[in-house]
User: What shape does this take?
Amino acid sequence: MLALLKKTCTELPQDVVSALDAAWSSEEDAIARETLSIIRESAGLSRAQSLPICQDTGALLAVIEGRPGVAFYAIEEALVQAAESLTDHGILRQNCVDPLTEKNTGTNRGAFVPQIHCRPGTGPTTIKLMLKGGGSENMSAQYSLPCKELGAGRDFDGVRRCVLDAVNKAQGKGCAPGILGLCIGGDRASGYYLAKEQLFRKLPDVNTEPALAKLEEDIRVQANRLGIGPMGLSGKTTVLGVKVIAAGRHPASYFVSISYSCWATRRYAVELDASGRIAAWL
Amino acid sequence: MAVKRICSPLDEQTVRGLKSGDRVLVSGVIVTGRDQVHTYLASGAEPPIDLTGMVLYHCGPVAVKDAQGWKITAAGPTTSMREEPYQAKVIERLRIGAVMGKGGMGPATLEAMQAHGCVYLHVTGGAAQYLARCITAVKEVHLLERFGQPEAMWVLEVQDLPALVTMDSHGESLHATVEDEATRNFKLLLDEKA
Assistant: This one.
C-alpha cells in the first residue's frame, strides 16, 4: 500500500505524460512551450528521485471495491497508516487542518480524512487512489440549470456553456492544462462525487455512450480555443481531456458538476489477488 | 529574450526596472507565506523578520527534518489569488519587493505594486522539483508551531530560481491581458453551437 501511495504522489501517470508531450509539440506560443517544458522536466525529476510531483500532495481519495467478505477495514487501515508514514518521511505534505482549532493535524488524518469509499462488487478486489490538489479543487464548480446569465438551458448546449464558464473563471488558477471530470444530473452531493470519479479514467479512454463521447470532444476542443494556455499565460493547451458521466436526476433538478484537476493529475488503480498483493495495474 | 539576474532582498530601482514579460533568475534570501501568514500580516502583526524588499513566496513546501536540519523535498507555488484581499496591505505596510506565486493576482495588488514598487514573479504550478532544486539552504523557520508546516514562514536561500515577471510596477499584468482575451473568446464560443 505504501508503494502504491508513494507512486501516486511521485510518478505522473503515463497517459498524462504523453498528453503533455503532445501538447508541447503542438504549442507555438513561446511562454506556453517554456511552461510545458518546465512541467515535463519537473515531472521527470520527481519520478527519477521518487519525490513529490507537486508540493501540494493533495487530499487522498480511495475507492475500494470487492466482494462481500473482502477485508475492507484492513485495507482502509493499511492505507491510513501508509499515508501517515509517508507524511513522516516528507513525501506527503501535512494537508489536514481542523477547522475548530485551525491547527494542522500533522498526520494527514482528521475527521472524514482521508476519504475512503468501500463498495461491494462482484469482481476481483480493486483499489483506486487519487491525490488531488487544493488549488484545482477550488476551481471545481457546480451549476444548476437553467442559468439565465449564461443562456444555459437544460440540455447539452447548456452543459457546454457552464463548463466553458468554469474553465474561463479558473484561468491559470487550477494549474492548467487541466483535466475535467463532469457529471450531468445527480444531486448536489453525488454530482460532485461522480464528477471527481471520472478523473480516474485515462485520457485516451473514449466514452462508451456516443452522445457523451461527442460532448467530451466538443468541450475539449472549445475549451482549448479560449486561449488561456498552460498556467494561464496564454496558449492553445488549456485542457488535456474531458470525461463525462450522466446520472439520473430529479425532475426538478439539472445539475452540472465540474471537478477540475490540475495537469499533475495523480491517480492509479490496481487489482489485488487473494493474498492482497498487486495482481495487475489497471 | 535576455534573462535578468536579481537578488532578494531587492532594491526599489531593480524592482522598477522590471517589466511584465521579463525572465529573471532569483538568488538570495526569500521567505514563504501563504494563507495564514497573509491574514496574520494584514491584521497588523509584526513579521518575525524584516521583509523590506524581500521576495514573498506563496508556497507551502514539503519539509522534513533530519540530523542535518530541515530539508525541503518539494516547493512549488500555491494559487496567489487567495491572498488578493490581503496582499495590497502587506505590500503597503511591509514594503516587500516581489510576490512570487502562480496564477497571478487582481487589481488591488496591481495598484499597490504601482504605488509602492513591487512585482509579481510567476513560477510554474506543480513544478515542485524543478523549483526545489534552486533552494540551497533552509535558513530559518518562523511561526511553525502556530501555523503548521505548510503555512509557516520558511526563510530560504535560493540560487538562480527561474521566474517570469507577469505583473510589474507600471500597471502591466499579463494575467489581465490573457483573461480579457479569454473572456472575449468565451463570449464568441457561447454564440457558437457545439
